[in-house]
Design a protein that fits this description.
globular, alpha+beta, 13 strands, 11 helices
């Protein structure tokens, strides 16, 4: 394909349908522009809701679609919400999402838009509905319930949702409990009704020590557990499942200066750190979305190779990358140990199958396809396009 043909196709590609602006006078300019990505997000969510049933554990977190083009305020072509956070590796648009804690398949996505749209979203969000949730819950609680909304009425064995400090609070834990869904989160800033001051002052003997407070209902049944656990520093958890029972400890190898004599070498020691079941469950699940993002950014790399200043193409390419990673994780989960190919090799194989497929060719009337003979020199080196060894360009084509 010639370069100009590729550029024409690239400029014309569109993932979602956008109405004419004069037909959307009731919507804001931001809402109208976001139609270029909303359909893709809605179709993704609908497909997951109808075709996939999550496992026992669900992770909720956020993802970022990389953006190095125009951003911030005053630019008509900017992202619907430009986010730049110091501890995040990329600047771009935030996508709040939920992910299966076993298969690492994304379940539900929510595109974060500008401040005005966020206020409308939070005001219009029906939190709980028939379950009777309160309307005055916080921002993090509303988002947490929304990203797992299709599975709130689950009647099977209780699921467990794990979220970071953006979602975790006593209110979030109570709201999930009314849906018969467990929640475990790490508390940092949302300390309302949480015994933070007491747990900060509680004494522990060593690394791996813990201190917990249990809230019980009128019948004496435990409802909430506030847990402080010490690793390198104190970490504070809130949960309504799993509890404080001890499970297998954490084993780590560390170098320590055992002998204080001058110029003596450090020694490798094995640390054994006790941990309760709540802590183990949280750390087994909380990193699933980060792992999914890492595969999308370092293995698929569409955001790196397909450069664009169009924010809608950037977001939709990130969604396409998520679908590719979902397919990779699903294939690996089905094959287990039989899937020994690396992520890069698997993606390259999928690309070749998509390019060379003949699914749309009628079996009764085959369509001639342009083929190329791979000419080789006396050393057996391929001469199609440019041989990496011979540096010679030669292609012979025929019908």
């Amino acid at each position: 394909m010639a370069r100009h043909q590729y550029e024409v196709l690239w400029e014309s590609i569109q993932f979602s349908r956008q109405a004419e602006y004069h037909d959307c006078v009731a919507t804001t300019n931001s809402q109208w522009r976001c139609q270029l990505a909303d359909n893709c997000v809605n179709n993704y969510n609908t497909d997951r809701e109808l075709s996939f049933s999550p496992s026992k554990v669900i992770c909720i977190d956020e993802s970022f679609t990389c953006w190095y083009g125009q951003g911030k305020n005053g630019i008509n072509t900017r992202l619907p919400m430009y986010v730049a956070i110091d501890h995040k590796p990329e600047n771009g648009c935030e996508i709040q999402d939920s992910c299966d804690g076993v298969a690492q398949i994304m379940l539900r996505l929510r595109l974060v838009k500008d401040e005005a749209d966020e206020r409308r979203y939070l005001d219009a969000l029906a939190v709980g509905g028939e379950q009777g949730h309160g309307e005055n819950v916080g921002h993090g609680t509303k988002v947490a319930l929304d990203v797992v909304k299709p599975w709130l009425d689950w009647q099977g064995p209780p699921r467990i949702v794990c979220g970071d400090s953006y979602f975790a609070s006593v209110a979030t834990c109570k709201e999930f409990a009314t849906c018969n869904i467990g929640f475990i989160g790490i508390v940092k800033t949302a300390t309302k009704e949480y015994p933070m001051d007491y747990l900060k002052q509680a004494e522990v003997e060593r690394r791996g020590g813990m201190h917990a407070l249990v809230s019980k209902d009128g019948d004496g049944v435990a409802e909430l557990v506030s847990l402080m656990w010490v690793d390198r520093e104190r970490r504070f958890f809130i949960g309504n499942m799993e509890g404080t029972e001890q499970t297998e400890p954490i084993y780590r190898k560390r170098w320590r200066q055992i002998d204080e004599t001058m110029e003596e070498d450090a020694e490798l020691v094995h640390l054994e750190i006790p941990q309760p079941m709540m802590v183990k469950t949280y750390y087994n699940v909380c990193g699933k979305i980060d792992q999914h993002n890492r595969k999308r950014q370092t293995d698929v790399e569409l955001e790196k190779y397909l450069c664009t200043n169009d924010w809608s193409k950037r977001i939709n390419l990130s969604l396409l990358s998520m679908i590719i990673v979902d397919t990779l994780n699903f294939d690996q989960a089905c094959k287990g140990q039989e899937c020994d190919a690396s992520a890069h090799d698997w993606i390259m194989g999928l690309t070749e199958e998509m390019i060379d497929n003949d699914f749309d060719r009628p079996s009764s009337s085959p369509i001639p396809i342009l083929k190329s003979t791979h000419l080789k020199d006396k050393n057996g080196h391929s001469l199609q396009r440019q041989c990496r060894v011979c540096k010679i360009k030669c292609t012979k084509s025929y019908w």
